[in-house]
Amino acid sequence: MNQIRDRLLRLGVLEKNVSDYEFAFLSGNSAEAVENLFGERHYGADFYQIALPMIRKMLDSDLKLQDRLCDKLQTDKIDKAFVIKYLTKMGTQPYLMLVFRHSEIPAEERERLVAKAKDVLFEEISNFLRAE
User: Fold this and answer.
1) Domain boundaries in the chain?
2) Phi then psi for 87, rounded to 5 degrees?
3) CA-based nearest residue to 8, from 73, 48, 76, 57
4) Could you read off the pLDDT of 15-38 as tens digits, one per residue?
5) Is 28 helix (H, G, I), strand (E, B) or coil?
6) Is the dihedral of CA 81, 84, 88, 92 positive or negative?
7) C-alpha span between 90 and 114 (Å, rounded)
8) How far is 132 from 119, CA to CA, in rounded Å?
9) Other C-beta atoms within 10 Å of 48: how many?
10) Cα–Cα distance between 56 and 88 in angstroms, integer?
11) Alpha-carbon distance 128 to 126, whole Å?
12) Which residues contact 41 (CB under 8 A, 6 or more apart)?
């Protein structure tokens, strides 16, 4: 478990919160489960606010992560450049910017991106923490 703790610290998780993050990402089976657990423990953050800072640190050290994220999230209406912008440049609640500033993207595509990105981020973080 020290390896998981060390990884969480590298991702910017505060020492006092490591056990909550470890429990949430390793015992939860979805982004929603993580979000619910953090809500029960009175964290004032949604899943994106929890996951995006971690993913951004992971992007700095894993050159293939950007490609994996784009492969899973881009569509004919949402290109690779927009996926990267969504995950790295639109704050920790990018879905708000998506709704208010990107009406050129059809609503169903925006909703799909928001939901799918949560699942993909959960999967990538969980896999990173579990990696040998």
Assistant:
1) 2-130
2) -85, -20
3) 57
4) 888 999 999 998 889 999 998 988
5) coil
6) positive
7) 13
8) 22
9) 23
10) 7
11) 5
12) 20
**Residue holding tokens 């979805």?**
30
Q: 80: closest CA among 71, 89, 88?
A: 71
Name residue 20's amino acid: D
Give the separation between CA 106 and CA 84, rounded to whole angstroms.
Answer: 18
Round to whole Å and give the CA distance between 15 and 28. 20
Per-residue pLDDT of 94-115, as tens digits, reads: 988 888 899 899 999 999 999 9
41: its two tokens: 């423990």
**Rounded mean pLDDT, 40-65:** 90
- pTM, two decimal places: 0.90
50, two tokens: 């929890």
Q: Which two tokens stand for residue 15?
A: 């020492």
Task: Please state, in angstroms and as integers, the Cα–Cα distance from residue 53 to each residue in 73, 90, 106, 108, following that order.
Answer: 18, 12, 27, 26
